Amino acid sequence: QVQLVESGGGLVQAGGSLRLSCAASGRTFSVYVMGWFRQAPGKERDFVAAITRNGGRTDYADSVKGRFTITRDNAKNTVYLQMNSLKPEDTAIYYCAADSSNWIAASQHEYDYWGQGTQVTVSS
């Protein structure tokens, strides 16, 4: 089992940047594929990005490609989401999640563990 705690959310103007962090504790972090999801008010939870166990491969939702970057530091048990050129439509609660399978998945149902989320608000 792994516990996940997100941080780094906040209020930012459109065009600005934020860096989210997700710190893991418990079972060895490097055995998990890690993902970021987001949920806007009244909407479904959507896939944002994911990264393989060793960080060698990443995947992104089309809406964030070229603006967001997911990375991980297995020595620090942390996964990051660098968000640049933020837009008001990026406003949501952002969640990190851990998947014990061997491949990247965009479906939230593939992920076994979830953090509590961190609020990101982008003003126009």
Secondary structure elements and pairings:
Layout: E1 2-7, E2 10-13, E3 18-26, E4 33-39, E5 45-51, E6 58-60, E7 68-73, E8 78-83, E9 92-99, E10 113-114, E11 118-123
Parallel strand pairs: 2-11
Antiparallel strand pairs: 1-3, 3-8, 4-5, 4-9, 5-6, 7-8, 9-10, 9-11
The main sheet comes to: 7 strands, mixed
Which stretches are low in confidence, meaning pLDDT under 50 for 5 or more residues running?
none
CA-CA gap between termini:
40 Å
Based on DSSP secondary structure assignment, what is the total number of beta strands? 11
Q: What share of the residues does DSSP label as strand, in percent?
A: over 45%
Class from helix and strand fractions? mainly beta
Written as H for each helix and E for each strand, in order along the chain, the element string is EEEEEEEEEEE
- Indicate the percent of residues in helices: under 10%
Number of helices: 0
User: Kindly state the mean pLDDT as a whole number?
Assistant: 96
General shape: globular
Radius of gyration: 13 Å
Question: What's this model, at a glance?
Answer:
By secondary structure, the protein is an all-beta fold. It has strands at residues 2-7, 10-13, 18-26, 33-39, 45-51, 58-60, 68-73, 78-83, 92-99, 113-114, 118-123.
